[in-house]
Amino acid sequence: MKYFSNISNINNQQKKVITLLTERPQNTYDLRKKGIYAPSARICELRAKGYIIVTTWQHIVDEANINHRVALYTLFHSPINEIFKKTA
């Protein structure tokens, strides 16, 4: 039986969330469609690492015509060490 490391999966998801938030704000629905199935947990972890991510609420209608209240995440600031990693 093959076992997958949950930690590396979490780290990969965090990197994916940052990449997506760098492009534009993302809501819970968008992130789940892109493979981030616990967006609020990933956002919480990234905030603990020093990222400033603001949450606002929006209402969306899905493909089944059902109304949902979802979080919209906007990245405002990355930690200094992350900025230096990109330029090094």
| Structural class designation | alpha+beta
Whole-angstrom Rg: 14 Å
Report the strand count.
Answer: 3
What is the third-level CATH name, the topology? Arc Repressor Mutant, subunit A
* Largest sheet properties: 3 strands, antiparallel
What is the tally of helical segments?
4
Quote the beta fraction.
Answer: 25-35%
The CATH architecture: Orthogonal Bundle
In the sheet with the most strands, the strands line up as 1-3-2
Instruction: List segments where confidence is low: pLDDT < 50 over at least 5 consecutive residues.
Output: none
Intertermini distance: 40 Å
Please write the string of helix (H) and strand (E) elements: HEHHEEH
* Level-1 CATH class name: Mainly Alpha
What count of structural domains?
A: 1
Globally, the shape reads: globular
The helical percent reads 40-55%
Mean pLDDT: 87
